[in-house]
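cache lookup: miss for this entity combination. No prior model stored, computing from scratch. Input as submitted by user K.M.:
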Amino acid sequence: MTIRPATVALVLFFAATLAFFSVSAPRFATATNYENLMAGFSFVAILAMGQAFPILVRGIDLSIGAIVGLVGMVVFDLTLIFHVPGYVILPVALVVGMLAGALNGVLVVVLRLQPFIATLATLAAYRGLTYTISGRQLVPGLSTTPITDRWIVGIENYFDVGGWLGVNKLLAMPWFPLSFFIMLALFALFQTLVLATRFGRDLYAVGGNYEAARLAGINTGRVIITAYALSGLCAAIAALIMVARFTTATEALGTGSELTAIAAAVIGGVSLAGGIGSMFGPALGAFLLGAVLLGLTLQGVPQFVQQIITGAILLAAVGYDRLLVVRRQRRLAANLAQAG
Amino acid sequence: MDAPAILRGVGLTKIYGNLVALRDADFSLRPGEVRALIGSNGAGKSTLIKVFTGAIAPTLGRVEIDGVAAPLGDPSEMIRRGIACIYQHSNLAPAMSVLDNIFLGRQPTRRFGFVDSARQRREARALLERHRIAIDLDATVGNLPTVKQKEVEILKALALDARVILMDEPTAWLAASEVAKLHDTIRMLKTRAVGIVYISHVLDEIFAVCDTMTIMRDGRVIAESAVADIDRPRVVHLMVGEKLARESAEAAHEKRHPRGTGEIRMSARDLTKRGVFTEVSFDLHAGEILCITGLIGSKRTELLRTLFGCDRFDGGTLQIDGRTAAFASPTGAIAAGVGFVPEDRHREGLMLDMTMTENLAMATLDRFHRGLMLQRRRMSEAARQAIASLSIQPPDGSRPVKLLSGGNQQKVLVGKWLNRAPRILILDEPTVGVDVGAKAEIYRILRRERERGAAILVVSSDLEEVFTIADRIGVMVAGRLVRIHDADDCRLQDIVREIGGAAA
């Protein structure tokens, strides 16, 4: 795998953003702030990496926020109503997320729905299902009971990495949240998956040229369904991290996170035209977005303005992606002309 | 003729809607045979190839490999049985490396689905060496020039160790030296008992490299022969059919009007759109039909779109009636008296769910309103006249266009411009998917417009059509308008040769 110039540009831009806010925003360059960044955006990075799979096959998954909500509520019900032990709940939660994602894939492949429409529909459906099964509504009084199962709340844990390394005397290291390490592990797993396995090659082939992939005998339907299932799986992992953090789940958990995830993936160079990008970009893109939002908060920019800025960043990233696509097509056309 | 066939098609028929693309075609190929598949555009060659690759399933008929019936419409099964194809249009994933593309969909793997890249690279190297092809395996395919991309496609087929390789116009983008190299490769494959099907419009190539040929026309196989037993005039005659021979004889009686009345309506000088077409110059006169022909991909459609203001050009000048024009949009072109009938009538031409009356009025709505309100009665009246004069069947203006046959749909599409009495009419493949009767009527309509004094520009791949209606014939090759002939002074063979890129 050669390192693309876009990746280098992203890393430089990330460094520049950190430098900018370190100078201009009060308390940005502190251990606490970096801890906040890692705790608050590791699950965004996980969602963004998940989102990268459907985008790589030229699709999109708008339903991940709703899947986060659904999985959160399943966890809530199983612990507080049914008192199922946490070590059972964890795999169940992952399976629920994966199935919800796979259903998106089935809609896209079997019913040949446009991914945007299919996942917009399931976004509404999953969110509605979340309200329907909500233990907060079904069992009065539960809404104020915190989740205490050690397997689940244990995910919200911090490690004093600086202490282990013995560098605390030299500089104040942030404590690293477990979710950050989960994110790193998933990154390693997914990056290997897309770059070094047969499935990964098929993923790029389907996204890069669907017809060529089909004619090469690739089972395109299976590849697409798997991509959406992985996106659902990531949503489930993100849901567990959020539930652990809040020690509860609400019906609105994860609302709007699809937008952040798509923004992070596109900023990270995963092309909406399909077949281009890897897992590094979305992960770093999420932290870039996080750094910007945290920096703005520290500068005293109100929450609503930040939403506008998120939207603007998404537009800019998508516009830039589009520009690259047009330029690639031009170059292709120029090549053809040369041949004649 | 003794060796048993490795690939056989029996009674293959493919029907799309009301278009029969392939009609009861039989085909057979023996090991080590190079069989040319020829015919004009729309004769059914590509459809036949697609049936063999499993890209589409035939409506009727069966495919046998080594005498055993093969499953239909399943590309992976066909690849497993050793059928490879080099497609006319690129079938590569542009963002992936050459290496990944060669092994697309069948990378060698180790445990857990990990791609065995070392083995992949070793096999690819061996392949390159064996065929003496030099290419950077790590280059991104989208960045390669087209000639190199074609090589990747060929490598992809070779890497399969295919027993049959189907080549759909493999040389369309290749330079002469590259063609010779491809032919060497074909001869080498022949010695290894690989069967090859070779589609090309360039007869020189066919006589150079093929053993046998199958000639198709209108979806049927109409002749089979050994290359040694047939000469070129006979091939051309079979390709275009008795009808053209007759029609062109008739058309010869029909008076042609090169340069029409002599008044120049549209004049292009060195029109250039970077990376698409280059230095296109022509004059289009009132009262003539100028046909531009060429291979698919020679950028004729792109040229027409630019003339009508759908796309911009980067260089050169365009004059309409002596005044410089650079249309920013079709609105400007229409105001200047230009009408445009696009190639794809379903996607770009018609509102399929709307009625014939509404479609016929589409380009003239500015004349059918008072204030904000449309005048339905006047619209229906105008449509009734148009339907009668175009003899559209059934003559019922309230009928949704999607219920009409292809030919009648096309008449509606042409008819919507005729209301405006256009000074210049541009048509892109005006009779694709249209039956013979409707074709003749569309020709009649075009001739009538010409007599009225309109300047007509037609792009067509159908040589039969070109020779029937053209007053002058332009040949476009890879984005250049290489030559314009008076239709009376040129022969079909010459045009065929020029289209293929041979020097005039």
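stored under new cache key. Residues 245-499 of chain B form a domain with the Rossmann fold fold (CATH 3.40.50.300).
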